[in-house]
Every structure is written in structure tokens, then in C-alpha cells.
Prior knowledge:
Blueprint: H1 17-39, H2 42-51, E1 63-68, E2 71-75, H3 77-92, H4 97-111, H5 138-141, H6 144-155, H7 166-174, H8 186-196, E3 204-207, H9 217-232, E4 237-239, E5 244-248, H10 256-269, H11 271-274, E6 276-281, E7 284-287, E8 292-295, E9 314-319
Antiparallel strand pairs: 1-2, 1-3, 4-5, 5-9, 6-7, 6-9, 7-8
Amino acid sequence: MPTPGAGPEPWRRPTTARRRRRRVRRAAVAVGVGAVVLGGAVAGVVGLLHRLDVRHTTPVVEGCTANLDGTRWWLAPEQADNAATVSAVVVRRGLPAHAATIALATALQESKLRNLPYGDRDSLGLFQQRPSQGWGTEEQLQDPVFATNAFLDVLVKVDGWQDLPVTQAAQKVQRSAFPDAYGQHETQSRAWASALTGHSPAALTCTLRPAPDDVDTAADATELRTRVARDYGTAVAASGSSPTLTLDARTLPGADATNAWAVAQWTVAVARAYDVVQVRVDDETWTRASARWTKAPSSTKSGAKAPATVPSGRVTVTLATPPPPK
């Protein structure tokens, strides 16, 4: 297992120039609108919004859902992003989906699936692990990959953990003062674990705002490659050049088809951070615009042959590109 705490902090995405520009633009909008309103010049507001191309923007409530037996279980994009990492580590280690269910239920209870820099006493991170109790250093425990591996290292040493209920298995690892609390997250965690380990194809989707106009496709591609390597190690290879990358899941433990769906739905769960606009696996496609999976028809309306399906065990990812200049 790598030592995520060594050297630079690889789990923290760099602040790129384009994201700084977005913050500056949002600040400018706030200041400009405030000044105009205070001055009573309503026409100025309309003109400002028009120039910034946001006048006709439809508000979007961002979020992700995993479907289990007809019920959709919602998480915020940040939570979905962390759930993707936890499940990727489980898949990478070749553990069953039950391990992901236990880990996700624990993280939901301990931190609401957020990588917290604080907690009770010296508790930190997704699982609220304590450096003073030998879980790792502060820096290591705020790396979600390290923290998940630390949790799983203890879990797999519990006798019969595969057959234990979620509450009992989580308590064996965490030693919580509230051992029954993990059970309230079991069904939601099972839905997300099943999707993110590939056992429930086309079950996970995210509703996201459109990618911004100032996307940096090359930066997104580089950062997505880095994220793949962080979560999956060398078990998933990323090839191709922006705006389209291919993720190869065939070297992960287990069946190619299942692993491809695990990686595809992992990509959807992290799509917001990397301006992903399309994910293709097998004969299904998820798009940011539709926020759903669609099966490709056998032929087009004109009778032409439909686009070929993605080869087994692989996932094709398309990133947003800047709009053409006006």
C-alpha cells in the first residue's frame, strides 16, 4: 500500500487558474449587481447579467443518486466523490461489495461522508480515525485512500466479517460509543456500494450544472489521470488524449464487465470535479446534459448502423471543451 502522507498532498486537487477566474467572476457579479441595485438602476442589472451570459441560466440543484430496488438514495456531489474513492479502494483490493457497504455506512455515520479536518478530540477524516490511537498521522488520515485502507486493514482481520451485519462489522472496527448508529445507513450504503462496485449497472447518476465556458480540457485530463491513479493505483490504466480518455478496468480483480461498470459509475460520481460531460460503457451512455444512462439503439433513425459499443472492460470518458469564439 502506498504512503499517501509522504511528499506533496496528492489527494488535494490543485487550484488551477481557471478556477481562480471563476471565483473572480462570481465576486465581480456580486459586487456589480449589489452596486446597481443600490443605485436603483434595474436596467443596469439586466445589461450586466446579459454580458456575463447568466441571465437565462436555469438553477440546478446538484446531486447524485444510486438506485436500489426502485428507491433512489441521494448524496451531495462532495459525498458522492468520497463514496467513489472508498468503493474504488474496495474494488482495487478485490474485496466483496459488502466491504464497501460497511465502509460507507461507517463514513456516513462518522463524518457524513465528508473528509473533515476536525472531530471529537483528535479524530479526523472520513472515518474520524485518531492519530493518538495509532491509525496514522494527521496528514495520512486526511487522505481518503489511506484512511479507507486503514479501515479495511482492520475489517478483514475480523473473524467472519463477510457474514456479519453492517452494524456489528462496523463496530468491530470503530469501537464506537453508539454501536447501533451504523445500521441507519445500511440500505443507502448498500445502494451506493452495489453501484460503485459494478453490481448494479446504470444505477448511479448525477445531476450537475453545465461545464463552465472557461474549462481547461488539458488540465482536466491531467487531473483525472492523477485521480484514477490515486484511487485505483496501477489496476486501471488511462489512455488517449483530451478531450477523450479510455479507462481500462481489465486488470482489476474480478469480472471485466462488472469492473467496467464500477469504473464507469466511479467516473460519473467524480464528474463534477473534472468537467466530465459523457461516460460510455458497453452499449450505454451517461451524459451530463441528460443526467441519465441511455442504451444505444441497434440502428439510427435513418437506418444506419449505430455507433459501436465500448470494448469489454473499458470505459470511454469525454471532457468538456471550451466553446468556439463568437
